[in-house]
From TrEMBL, chain A:
Bilayer topology term: Multi-pass membrane protein
Phylogenetic classification of the source organism: Bacteria, Bacillati, Bacillota, Clostridia, Lachnospirales
Family affiliation: Belongs to the MreD family.
Official protein name in the record: Rod shape-determining protein MreD
Record organism: Parasporobacterium paucivorans DSM 15970
Keywords from the UniProt entry: Cell membrane, Cell shape, Membrane, Transmembrane, Transmembrane helix
Source organism superkingdom: Bacteria
GO biological process: regulation of cell shape
Pfam families: MreD
GO cellular component terms, A-Z: plasma membrane
Transmembrane annotation, as ranges: 53-78, 99-122, 128-151
InterPro entries reported for this sequence: Cell_shape_determin_MreD_prd, Cell_shape_determining_MreD
From TrEMBL, chain B:
Domain of life of the organism encoding this protein: Bacteria
GO biological process entries: regulation of cell shape
Record-linked InterPro entries: Cell/Rod_1 (IPR042177), Cell/Rod_MreC_2 (IPR042175), MreC (IPR007221), MreC_beta-barrel_core (IPR055342)
Protein's UniProt name: Cell shape-determining protein MreC
Cellular component aspect of the GO annotation: plasma membrane
Function according to Swiss-Prot or TrEMBL: Involved in formation and maintenance of cell shape.
Family: Belongs to the MreC family.
Family matches, as Gene3D superfamilies: Rod shape-determining protein MreC, domain 1, Rod shape-determining protein MreC, domain 2
Alphabetical list of Pfam families matching this protein: MreC
Entry keyword set: Cell shape, Coiled coil
């Protein structure tokens, strides 16, 4: 369990650094993929609601602490995303990669729409479809593509840990 | 290919118990988050301890990561450049001809400018302010905002509300500091509002950051008096009446000015002089605006 937590923490930190520092080169052309969301969604989907919501909380707090005027909004949104995807863990499980990628895509859209409502709509930026097409969809698509690449390794890591834990129990 | 999904036994007793627990956990933490949102937006100091701890750990690593990222982008840049350079060369040749013409005209105007400067006794700009250079180490984690973090903080003498410039023009303002880092909100951020003026006529206006307009590389310019005799291509500077921005910092050049529907004001856009997509180093002006309060 301890190893799992350390690995998860490392993964979150690396994702955060990549998201904030690595993709800064030519940001005007490519949207920044939401790596923290990928981690939250895949942890939630693989491990369940509890892991999902705690992962989301950590990721959200990290984003909040650095980039928000106030703390809590991102934490709340990421946590909800993790929890919702955890619910899917109760229903489905499998090696199939399309479902988690689809979940990442959907979660990213949901997260950004919520962010739009709280941070933009309330200030009178009403042109939702503009933001949907120019900000939300590009990010969601790009994030889903990255999820397609990194989901399998995350799942494999999870399975490795599970095996190790089982062995120790026996 | 078929979906290889296996339905899990939903009514497993053990699982159900666990689910109930995490639902409560979710509700408790969600309530805590809401409380935190309210608290930290009412009293910004609530967020301080979180920020101090986080930046102390993360900033050093961020510095290193940033270097790796830059190395990669430099490599890819140099490849792109080769093909670009050829194309650019042609364009530049055409520009040289154009500029030579313009230059001769400008030389004539230079004399006039020198005379006017003397009249207005305009200081040679912001070169006299005490500045400190800082590196951009992280940008906002999403695509909605244009805030970034620099590697200098209060231990280097940086304070909230200090102006940040890069190259020729205004970049933004410091909104938050920790001992070893500071958060800067750039003027293209959707939350940004800068009180500005036209360089020639000193008519006041407001430079309002807009995510929508920034997609095409421009910033919104609003609240220009309808009777102001302003033209496209004029310099936009920070105004004297702003309570946070120092006066006479260049922001950009105006364009697309037209009457508003309310027939009281004019609006347009400005093209910023700073290239926001490739900010790597910025200068923080250590002088705070004195508001006489």
């Amino acid at each position: 369990m301890m190893k799992r937590i350390i690995a998860a923490t490392l993964m979150i930190l690396v994702a955060f650094f990549l998201q904030t520092a690595f993709f800064t080169g030519d940001i005007s052309k490519l949207p920044v993929p939401n790596l923290l969301l990928i981690i939250t969604v895949s942890f939630g989907f693989i491990r369940g609601t509890r892991t999902g919501l705690i992962t989301g909380l950590v990721c959200g707090l990290l984003a909040d602490v650095f980039f928000s005027d106030f703390i809590g909004l991102n934490a709340l949104l990421y946590m909800s995303v993790g929890f919702m995807n955890g619910v899917f863990n109760k229903i489905f499980f499998g090696e199939e990669i399309r479902l988690p990628v689809l979940l990442v895509f959907g979660s990213d859209i949901a997260y950004n729409v919520a962010l739009y409502i709280f941070m933009f709509l309330f200030r009178g930026r009403l042109d939702f479809f503009y933001y949907l097409i120019h900000i939300i969809l590009p990010e969601a698509i790009f994030t889903a593509i990255i999820a397609f690449i990194v989901y399998k390794p995350i799942l494999m890591l999870h399975e490795k840990f599970t095996e190790a834990e089982k062995e120790r129990e026996q | 290919m078929k979906f290889k999904l296996h339905l899990k036994p939903i009514f497993n007793k053990n699982r159900k118990k666990n689910q109930l627990k995490s639902q409560y956990l979710y509700m408790i933490i969600a309530a805590a988050c809401c409380l935190l949102i309210v608290l930290s937006s009412l009293y910004p100091s609530t967020a301080k301890p979180f920020k101090y701890i986080a930046t102390a750990i993360v900033v050093p690593v961020q510095n290193g990561m940033n270097e790796i990222g830059q190395w990669f982008s430099e490599k890819s840049d140099s490849l792109k450049k080769l093909s670009q350079v050829v194309k650019e060369n042609e364009n530049l040749q055409a520009q040289v001809d154009e500029l030579t013409l313009e230059n001769s005209r400008l030389i004539q105007e230079q004399g006039e400018l020198a005379r006017l400067r003397e009249l207005y006794s305009l200081d040679s700009g912001y070169s006299s302010y005490d500045k400190i250079a800082a590196k951009v180490i992280a940008k906002d984690s999403g695509n909605w905002f244009s805030t970034f973090i620099i590697d200098k903080g209060s231990s280097d003498g940086i304070a909230v509300d200090m102006n940040v410039i890069a190259g020729k023009g205004l970049v933004g303002i410091v909104i938050d500091v920790t001992p070893n880092s500071a958060t800067v909100r750039s003027i293209i951020d959707d939350f940004s509002n800068v009180s500005a003026k036209f360089g020639t006529t000193s008519d006041l206006c407001i430079v309002k950051g807009s995510l929508q307009m920034m997609q095409s590389g421009i910033i919104e310019l609003i609240n220009i008096n309808k009777n102001a005799a302003v033209t496209d291509g004029d310099m936009i500077l920070t105004s004297n009446v702003s309570d946070k921005y120092l006066p006479d910092i260049l922001i950009g050049y105006s364009g697309g000015i037209k009457d508003d529907a309310n027939n009281l004001t004019k609006s347009g856009y400005i093209t910023p002089v700073v290239n926001f997509s490739s900010l790597e180093e910025v200068l923080v002006i250590k002088q705070l605006k004195e508001t006489g309060e």
